[in-house]
Amino acid sequence: MTTELIDIISSKEDDEWEQTINSNNFKEGVFCIHRSWGLGKIKKIDESNDCVIIDFKGKPSHQLALDFAYTSLTVLSSNHLLVLKEEKLSYLQKLSLENPEEIIKIFVLSFRQKATPERLQAVLCPEVISADQWKKWWENSKKIIKKSASIRIPSKKSEPIIILDKAPDNYSLFIGTLQSALPPRKKIDALYKILKEIDNWNDQDRALKVVTSIESLLQQPKEDSFPTLDFVLLKEEIIQKAKIPLPSEKEEDLFFYIPEKYDLLLSSLLRLSSINQERVLWLLWERKNKPVELFFDLLINADGKLADNIVKIFEQSGLTDLLLEKFNRLIRERALSVELLYWLCKNRNNLLQPLLNSDLFYCILYVLERELGSVGKKAEKLYDLLTTGTGLIQGLLSTSSLDDVKDITRTVLLSPVFRELDKRSLLGAIVKVRPEVQELISGNRGIEGENTLIVSWSSLEEKKRELDELVRKKIPENSKEIAHARSYGDLRENHEYKAAKEMQAVLMRRKAELESMISKARATDFSDVDTSVVNIGTVVHYTNVKTNTPSSIAILGAWDSNPSKGIISYLAAFGQSLLGHKPGDVVQVSMEDGSTKEIRIDKITRWIDAPSV
């Protein structure tokens, strides 16, 4: 085919990434794609022989007639994602970690209407992103894209990803949200975004429009649950931040907007900034003539920020003793939430110092046993605070009697909550505070030493796999079931909730058992076993004295029992009867059913030499 004919075959206009062949792009070294053979690189164009040689994957140096090449190939730009994979793989791998948004844009420009999430995974895995990392990478990338709002990700995997010409600003998003039927919470979120960017606005027009929109919203008929307080405070913050002048007669009484219903009041307070929280709380405190019980109720369900403000009000009102009395009662009744308990332990200031005692330790332990595994991160933070460092333990135990510290030590030793290494760290912290309990801990470890389990490596790995599945899969799934069942309402009649909580107890008990077993295990491959006497890891060849019948049995680790294959645990009655005996001994052995039989040991060999008995 002549050069003039090549010129006649036009490419898609303004499409640089994927083109049909023309005289400008049909060159050696260029990548192309064929519907059947996939990606290839043009190795040589031989016009004298009317052919082109292309290195396809799986078809190196493949020869095509020029006529066929012109009609069947599509040339790819050097910026096409498939080309970058071939020539700049390390660059793409780095880009996927540092700028996932950019790599998705390259993908969309490369595949256009075929740029679906499904195809993205097929193109990037496994060369750019390994298959086991894909899900985590994709979820993280979607969060980044959501923040930038420059790319639209479809709800279905089979629909195309689209690059937006211009990311909508937060003002436009707010106006759109305000005019929609979305719930108030979404509108509040949009207002918080405006607050973050309002300093960058050059004039007050936008801010005035936002304030007018909020006022219009507040004048509409509302349900009792509508978070009016949030909108009023946000309106004030926007007015202050945008420096909008308002006549004095337009100043509003904030107290009028404070919800009467406890649930709505609590949810609003938890959303507010610390400054606005304090402002609302002081209004309530002064206008309602020091509503102590209401503030105690709020404290029970408070997060750290709200707890700070409530405690500040009690302290400045001279009611510290009343506050400490209430805290002590909550501690004794084990009624503190995991979040409030974490806050209390984290903020060990002079005011709260009297609360640090053995009662608080038992409250922490109770909450951990109740919540760990069902609440996840909140309980883990409290767990970490207790088991790392000595500050909290020193505060809790410094005023406790030796008997109380000994009781706490025994509780820690027996508790299923603590992982083995964390338990040792915690016990070490207790010893630093009261060295007298060292003997108690050492005595317990001596007992643990006597209970060491000899196990095979394979059986130990099996136990670890079971524990890992519990921790990573079964317990989290159960936690979700509990949360789902709790959403049904009244827990007293909630059978799904009760069943899920019962299963939680079973799972946590099994977790504790496995952790205890693994901590006591000493794994071996039985290669260094002494065969002069019966030991763990030997095969005993024996004769039944009564029937003169020869037989053999392998005595292996604590978790290796498999009688059908002639393997028993050294802890079994039969194994215990044989341990320590040598060839020629006649032994009365105990059977699992309680009966006995007399055998003569003929020979002892290593199990590892012939693992099939």
List keywords for this structure.
translation elongation factor activity; Chitinase A, domain 3; RNA polymerase binding; single chain; Helix Hairpins; Tscrpt_elong_fac_GreA/B; alpha+beta; six-stranded antiparallel sheet; 613 residues
In words, what does this structure look like?
With 613 residues, this protein is α+β, with helices and mostly antiparallel strands. Among the domains are: 72 residues, Helix Hairpins (Orthogonal Bundle), CATH 1.10.287.180; 69 residues, Transcription elongation factor, GreA/GreB, C-terminal domain (Chitinase A, domain 3, Roll), CATH 3.10.50.30. It contains 26 helices and 15 strands. The strands form four sheets. Strands 1-6-2-3-4-5 form a six-stranded antiparallel sheet. Strands 13-12-11-15-14 form a five-stranded mixed sheet. α4 packs across α5 and α8 runs parallel beside α10. The longest helix is centred in the C-terminal third of the chain and has 30 residues. Keywords: DNA-binding, Elongation factor, Protein biosynthesis, Transcription, Transcription regulation. It holds the Pfam family GreA_GreB. Belongs to the GreA/GreB family. It comes from Methylacidiphilum fumariolicum (strain SolV). GO terms for molecular function: DNA binding; RNA polymerase binding; translation elongation factor activity.
